[in-house]
Amino acid sequence: MPRTILALIGHGQWGKNYLTTAQEIPECHIKYVCSRDYKKLLRYKEIDGIIIATPPSTHFDIASFFLLHAMPLLIEKPLTTGYQDALRLLRMHKESAPVVLVGHIFFYNPAFLRLKTLVPHIGTLVSIDSEGTNFGPMRSDVSALWDWAPHEISMGMSLMGASPSAVQGWSLRTKISGRETDDMVYMKLVFGKISMFSKIGWLSPIKTRRFTVTGTHGAIIFDDMHPVRKLKQLSGALRAVISYPSYEKTAPLENQLREFISCIRLKRKPRTDLAHGVECVRVIDAVERSIRQKGKYISL
Fold first, then answer.
1. How many CB atoms lie within 10 A of CB 219?
2. Among 25, 121, 135, 214, which one is most buried in terms of CB atoms within 10 A?
3. Strands across the sheet containing 194-201
4. Which residues form the Gfo/Idh/MocA-like oxidoreductase C-terminal domain (predicted)?
5. Which CATH number does the domain housing residue 217 bear?
6. What is the pLDDT of residue 236?
């Protein structure tokens, strides 16, 4: 089978990550790279799909252009920076129906996927806690909410198999980034009787990426910053029994890119399809409205 030919729009850090990752996948070749004149890519009929790794504020314009031409797309998170724009993309997609994968990378993280299989072993689910922080990088086009929350929300939705029924949000606003924005965010996502609490932002001196699930008979901790043991399971009456579950060691970005290639070839729906991306944006939008209303409980 011939290699899948891809084009990459955006040559920042994530764009470079895609270029490096694609070199490990013999089935694909990123043949074209551009940052601005993306419309010219339509000249090259050999292109099978396009990766959009540009700043979030540009996603809607770029994605809408290629949806009009039924081009398969991999769009980095967040899908858009507003719910109405996300809905517009969804309506356009229903007319052209190409493959669209939204880059919620933890859906392709082997350690997180292994965590999901272990949840039945810790009894009845009690709570979910997550934390994603770092000192920077501070974006000029979106707040920390739109930059970081797609990870937390998509993981929560993946674990629970549903969208939250309600949300609350609070934020710390500063001008450290050069403009006043939500630099640290605290979220509560309600999934029926289970609540998920998250702390995210770019003002922490310590980089964290942790997701903890607690049940009546134990807990599982996913720590993506740990170089070797990303999963820890606690059990026993005092949670004193510690084990380190195994998981595949493949790179999440490679898994995500392979999913995109497979979906293009087989014309199937991705795990993180456009509808999933739209739903994540809907939840982020609700959290932002709650923040603006001082933590108001927002039903979805």
1. 18
2. 214
3. 241-243, 231-235, 218-223, 203-215, 125-135, 194-201, 181-191, 166-174, 298-299
4. 144-297
5. 3.30.360.10
6. 80
136 and 222, same domain (yes or no): yes
Omega prior to 78 cis, within 30 of 0: yes
**Domain around 218:** 106-250+284-299
**Closest by Cα among 78, 125, 135, 111 to 221:** 111
Q: Are residues 33 and 173 in the same domain?
A: no
Contacts of 80 (CB under 8 A, 6+ apart): 56, 59, 60, 63, 86, 89, 281
How far apart are the C-alpha atoms of 245 and 234, rounded to whole Å? 11
Residue 26 burial (CB count, 10 A): 8
Report if residue 278 sits inside a domain: no
Within the chain, which residues score under 50 in pLDDT? none
Determine contact, residues 100/73, Cβ cutoff 8 Å.
yes
112 and 230 inside one domain = yes
Say how many domains are in the chain: 2
- Reported as a single tens digit per residue, the pLDDT across 27-45 is 999 999 998 899 999 999 9
Cα–Cα distance for residue pair 87/67, rounded to 1 Å: 13
Query: Distance (Å, rounded) from C-alpha 233 to C-alpha 211?
Result: 12
Please tell me the predicted confidence (pLDDT) of residue 96: 86
Give the per-residue pLDDT at 239.
79
Q: Is residue 145 part of a domain?
A: yes
Q: Whole-model pTM? A: 0.96
Domain co-membership, 35 together with 65: yes
User: According to the model, what pLDDT value does residue 259 have?
Assistant: 99
Say how many Å lie between the first and final Cα of the chain, rounded: 45
Give pLDDT, residue 75: 99
Q: Are residues 124 and 86 in the same domain?
A: no
